[in-house]
Structure formats: structure tokens, C-alpha cells
Amino acid sequence: MKEVVTRDARGRLEERLRVYRAHDAIDRTVERFDGSGRRVEGVTSYRDGTTLVRSFDERGDTVQDEWRRRDGSLEKRLTIAYEGGEAIVTTYDGEGREIARSRQPKRTV
Asked: Which DSSP string do the residues of the chain spell out, in sequence order?
């Protein structure tokens, strides 16, 4: 794996790019950060053409995952809401229809 880090003029982390070896299922991951070093988005590209876009809230918790096909169309979306010590995970299909909902301990999300 090769990693390239981009920093702003003040030395704060802006972006981290990781490129993986040819035999890995993941091709590359790009994480974007705000001015305080908090991760706000992660984009993972897989060798089969699928892309995962992960969004984070102000605490760094995952709030949404979107899987996109090679052509850019939406394959599946997960939204995650946090309530107490639980995460409520809702899964939608490519047409935006809810297909599953579950509650799980926050630490597993």
C-alpha cells in the first residue's frame, strides 16, 4: 500500500490517499478532512468498479454509506442514526425504497 497525505498551509490534514496492491479487492481509498482534522468523507474504489462513499458527522461517526456501480448509478444506501448507545441502520435499494432496518450496538457500526 502507498499513502499520500495532503496538508493545508498550516499543516492540517486535508486529504489522505491510499493506493493498494494489485491483488487487493480495494483499488484506492481517499479520505477528506475539514480544517480541524475531522474526517468528513471517505471514498473507496474497488477493482470490480464499485465505489463506496462514506459520510461522517461532527463526532466522526458514520452517518451514510452509498454503494455505486461502475456507471455511477446507486446500488444501495445505508443511513445510520444514533440513539443512546445504539445505531439504527436503514438500508435502501437503488430506487430509494427502504429494504431493511435494524438496531445494533453503536460500537459495531
From this structure: -EEEEEE-TTS-EEEEEEE--TTSSEEEEEEEE-TTS-EEEEEEEETTS-EEEEEE-TTS-EEEEEEE-TTS-EEEEEEEEEETTEEEEEEEETTS-EEEEEEEEGGG-
- Residue-wise pLDDT for 13-32, tens only, equals 999 999 998 888 999 999 99
Residues 58-70: tens digit of each pLDDT: 888 899 999 999 9
Question: b/e for 62-82, b at 16 or more Cβ within 10 A?
Answer: bbebbbbeeeeeeebbbbbee
Strands 2-7, 39-46: pairing kind: unpaired
pTM: 0.83
